[in-house]
Structures are given as C-alpha cells and as structure tokens.
C-alpha cells in the first residue's frame, strides 16, 4: 500500500558516494511511486561550497533517468537544497536550522525530520549532540536518525557510539541500516519459514543437517581500501550481514509479524550464538587474503594497502546457534572479495531419509536454496522418478522465481528501507541488542586472530577461497553446495 509521507530529509555527507549511488535514486523511486509527492524536501550537507543548482544537477545525474521520467526528475530535484556545513562547527547548525524551518513551512511538512548520517561514524556523536542542542529536532513531528554501517569496530566502540547517540535519540528513533535486511530475498526467509507449514515443521535440528551461507564478491577493495584495511572481511561482512541472515534463519517463530516480536526473537537467536574458546576459533574459522592470479593483482599490491598487510579478505567459519531448534546444526558461512562470482545465497541441507527403499540407487540430498543475488530465486532439490521404463530416480529442481509471475522487479534495498523508516517501521533495521550480541561473538574471533602470529592463508583471485575453507566442511563429511562460476 502506498501512503504519501511528509518529511524533511537532512543528509549529512550529501556529496558522498553512498548518497549519490544509493540514496538519491532510492528517494526518486519513492517519489515516482507516490510515497513522496509535494510535501517533502531534502537538504544535502557536506563541506564543499555547492549551490542548490549544482546540487540539483548532481541529484539528476545520480538518478540516471531516461525518456518520460526526465520530466519527473526535474520536479523531484527542485525539492533538493544544499547547505555547506562542517559538522564540527556549532554555528553551521544554526544556518541549518533556519533552512530546515523555512523548508518545513514552504512544503508544509509538519515537523517530520529524517536525519541520515551518510558519513564516517566518528562524527555521529557530534552530529546527534548538535541536532538536539541547536534545536534542529522538532517537537511538532518525528525525529528519526538513520545510521550507516560500520556501527563500531568491536563491542566496546559500538557501545560508546550507541551511548553517544542514545543520549539524544531514544532507541525507537534510531534506524541502523543493514541493507541486506532491505533485500527482497532476505525478507523472503520469514515468508518461507512462517508462511508454510511444510517448512515450519521441518525447520529444526531433527530435519536440517546443515546450513550454508555464501556472500561472495568478485570485486576487490576498489575505492574503499582505506576503510577495508582497518576492517577486514570479519568486521565488514560477518558481524552485520551474515549474522543478520543467521538470526532470520534460526530465530523462533515470533508471536506476530511485528517489529517488537520479530526483533525479540532475532535478539534471542543472536544471544544463543555459541561463543568459542581461542582453540575452537582456530579449529572453526579460516581467514585468508587474495593473491595475484587470472590477470588480477593481489590484495597487498592494491593501492593504499600495506605491503605486509594482514587484513583478511576472506572468512569461512562454522558456527552454532544453541537454541532449542538449532542446537547441533552446523552453520557454515563464508564471504570474501575477488572470488569467482558475485553471489549471495543460502543453502539449507536436509537430513537423509532414515531408510532407502530404492537401494542400491542413491538418494540425492534435499536442499532448499534461497538465492539472494544476482538472481532472486528459490529452488529445492528433490528426488523424482526418471520418465520412462523401469524405475530410476533422479535429483530434480523445483524452481520459484518471484519475478517471473508478472510481479514487478525487486525494489532496491535502500528504497524499501527508506519507505519503512518513513512509516516508522524498524523491523528491517538492527536493534542495538542485535548489534551488541553480534559484536561479542565476532570479538572472540578477532581477539584470537590478533594474538596469533601465523601467516595468513592465501587464495588466488577468481577462486572460491582457500583450501582450508573446503576442508572445514570435508572434516564433517560435507561440501559447499555452491562451487562458484559453473554451479
Ligand atoms: P564518502 O567519503 O564518499 O563521503 C563522505 C561524506 O562526508 C562527503 O559528503 C564529505 O564531504 C562529508 N564529510 C566528511 N567530513 C565532513 C565534515 N567534517 N563536515 C561535513 N561533511 C563532511 O563516503 P561514503 O562512501 O558516501 O560513505 C559514507 C558512510 O556510509 C561511511 O560511514 C561508510 O562506511 C558508509 N557506507 C558506505 C557505503 C558505500 O557504498 N559507499 C556502503 C555502506 C556503508
């Protein structure tokens, strides 16, 4: 259902990469679809001295509209205003407040404010403080703050950041982005699990043998080298996206499809992550770095990367969620850069039949796959009879493509998340307690690695990671279902 919203967006970091690539196109799509009509305005702020006209041109370019949409683009961009602003300068906030008040009246917005912090987290506390002290927050409408990742670099820094924001904004008004939660196929996990008795009944340690989550990227560090060098794959991908997917896969059934009930069960699942001892970390987690191969240079040869960098660009691990339904089910995860293909996918492998009446024919394993990217689809491997004389079994796919049934193409994650935040629905944003439990789990791994002096494993660009990642599963008599490009 499309409900028209009134809001003033103030985007800190309005000239940045994220704003241009994701935020402006997402807002435009909401405009096209009628979520935003006349009663909205956007203030972009950053240090550069841009004019409104130049800013509007940047916004129009960012949208990449063609044909009939071009007319809409100009009207849409006319709602955008630019304010040169150094976030550390108190006086600039007074100018910002005056502009915000003027636009609020001009567009009859009614005091609803959406503060988007699309810049380095080290500024979040300062911005939050000034928004309050310089009265940019209003009493008339809502005041919501949307925050980008990374939310801290360990539990301690995340807690500090949370307190710095929490002093001025209550948890209900803090929307922490994990853009994976805005992806259509990630949201499909709850639909599949709790909308089908078939899966509800099977979704537990009696029937599930193991779960595999792969978030692979074919690109290297690109422009984000400076940040990546201090983060690594564990902080960049596991603490947030992978553990969020784990929580959706293993949470208990919520009492209702509501923000409070879903978040409660996700928090409980993350709290149930088994904490490893340093010995267990060594046994169950693998880290590695890409090396030159297939015409692509290695991580240490990338610009802005130290020659002796020990930052991991790949992580694989085996983890457990020790709640009633999942205790004992290994969850294998892996993520990395410069792998053979960009793919986000979940494979749920079911246990074998207790007896095989077709022996000596072998029964293929039942596997449910939720493909998040590049192609959104769900498929299930089941055993069926081969057509023809005799009785031979074959492993076949039941496929479901959500886009092939006449449904529209997937909305971008940022578009969905903006729409949710405008509606005040934080279901698909991460609650502080989820962040806290995730960091506590990740910190144990990081601490162990930081104390180890052993050499990092390497993997060639274009592969699916180091051999140690395959061995992690072979040890348990398993293998990765997804084998890369030719799978
Ligand atoms: P960026 O470097 O392109 O942009 C940073 C913005 O902050 C610029 O507009 C810059 O002018 C502004 N800025 C910096 N210092 C300032 C100051 N003192 N006062 C006012 N403005 C100042 O960064 P980005 O890639 O757009 O990322 C922004 C945030 O979003 C970061 O925290 C990043 O980790 C996060 N993020 C980015 C992406 C992405 O795809 N770019 C993805 C996920 C998360």
Automatic annotation (TrEMBL):
Domain Glucose-6-phosphate dehydrogenase NAD-binding positions: 10-188
The record lists substrate as bound by 179, 183, 217, 236, 337, 342
Q: Where is the Glucose-6-phosphate dehydrogenase C-terminal domain?
A: 190-480
Which residues are recorded as binding NADP(+)? 13-20, 47, 149
Q: What class of enzyme is it?
A: oxidoreductase
The organism's superkingdom is given as: Bacteria
The record's catalysed reaction(s) read: D-glucose 6-phosphate + NADP(+) = 6-phospho-D-glucono-1,5-lactone + NADPH + H(+)
Q: What are the protein's GO molecular function terms?
A: glucose-6-phosphate dehydrogenase activity; NADP binding
Keywords (A to Z) from UniProt:
Carbohydrate metabolism, Glucose metabolism, NADP, Oxidoreductase
What biological-process terms (Gene Ontology) are attached?
glucose metabolic process; pentose-phosphate shunt, oxidative branch
A Gene Ontology cellular component where this protein is annotated is:
cytosol
SUPFAM superfamilies this protein is in? Glyceraldehyde-3-phosphate dehydrogenase-like, C-terminal domain, NAD(P)-binding Rossmann-fold domains
The pathway that the record names for this protein is:
Carbohydrate degradation; pentose phosphate pathway; D-ribulose 5-phosphate from D-glucose 6-phosphate (oxidative stage): step 1/3
| Pfam families for the chain | G6PD_C, G6PD_N
Known InterPro entries for this protein? G6P_DH, G6P_DH_AS, G6P_DH_C, G6P_DH_NAD-bd, NAD(P)-bd_dom_sf
Q: What is its EC number?
A: 1.1.1.49
Q: Which residues form the active site?
A: 241
Function of the molecule:
Catalyzes the oxidation of glucose 6-phosphate to 6-phosphogluconolactone.
UniProt record similarity statement: Belongs to the glucose-6-phosphate dehydrogenase family.
UniProt cross-references to NCBIfam families, sorted A to Z: zwf
What is the recorded name of this protein? Glucose-6-phosphate 1-dehydrogenase
């Amino acid at each position: 259902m499309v409900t028209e919203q009134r809001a003033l967006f103030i985007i800190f970091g309005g000239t940045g990469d994220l704003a241009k690539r994701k935020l402006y196109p997402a807002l435009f799509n909401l405009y096209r679809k009628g979520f935003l009509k006349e009663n909205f305005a956007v203030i972009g702020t950053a240090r550069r001295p841009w004019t409104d006209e130049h800013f509007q041109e940047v916004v129009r370019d960012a949208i990449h509209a063609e044909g009939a949409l071009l007319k809409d683009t100009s009207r849409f961009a006319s709602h955008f205003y630019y304010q040169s602003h150094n976030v550390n300068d108190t006086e600039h906030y007074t100018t910002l407040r005056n502009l915000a008040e003027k636009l609020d009246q001009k567009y009859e917005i009614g005091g609803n404010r959406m503060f988007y912090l699309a810049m380095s987290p080290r500024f979040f506390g300062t911005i939050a403080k000034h928004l309050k002290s310089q009265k940019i927050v209003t009493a008339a409408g809502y005041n919501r703050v949307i925050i980008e990742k990374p939310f801290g670099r360990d539990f301690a820094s995340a807690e500090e950041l949370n307190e710095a924001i929490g002093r001025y904004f209550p948890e209900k008004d803090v929307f922490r982005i994990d853009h994976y939660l805005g992806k259509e196929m990630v949201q499909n996990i709850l639909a599949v699990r709790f909308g089908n008795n078939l899966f509800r009944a099977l979704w537990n340690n009696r029937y599930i043998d193991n779960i595999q989550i792969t978030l692979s990227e074919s690109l290297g560090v690109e422009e984000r080298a400076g940040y990546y060098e201090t983060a690594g794959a564990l902080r960049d991908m596991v603490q947030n996206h992978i553990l969020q997917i784990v929580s959706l896969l293993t949470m208990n059934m919520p009492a209702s499809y509501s923000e409070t009930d879903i978040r409660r069960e996700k928090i409980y699942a993350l709290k149930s992550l088994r904490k490893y001892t340093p010995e267990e970390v060594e046994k169950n987690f693998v880290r590695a770095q890409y090396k030159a191969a297939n015409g692509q240079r290695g991580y240490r040869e990338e610009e802005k990367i130290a020659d002796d960098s020990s930052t991991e660009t790949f992580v694989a691990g085996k983890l457990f969620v020790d709640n009633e339904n999942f205790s004992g089910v290994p969850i294998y995860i892996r993520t990395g850069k410069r792998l053979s293909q960009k793919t986000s996918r979940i494979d749920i492998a079911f246990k074998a039949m207790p007896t095989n009446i077709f022996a000596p024919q072998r029964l293929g394993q039942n596997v449910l796959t939720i493909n998040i990217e590049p192609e959104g689809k769900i498929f299930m491997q089941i055993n069926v009879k081969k057509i023809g004389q005799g009785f031979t079994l074959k492993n076949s796919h039941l496929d479901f493509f959500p886009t092939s049934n006449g449904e529209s193409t997937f909305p971008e994650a940022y578009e969905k998340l903006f729409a949710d935040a405008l509606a005040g629905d934080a279901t698909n944003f991460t609650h502080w307690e989820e962040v806290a439990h995730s960091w506590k789990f990740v910190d144990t791994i990081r601490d162990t690695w930081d104390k180890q002096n052993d050499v990092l494993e390497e993997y060639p660009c274009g592969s699916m990671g180091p051999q140690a990642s395959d061995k992690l599963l072979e040890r348990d008599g398993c293998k990765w279902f997804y084998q890369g490009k030719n799978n």
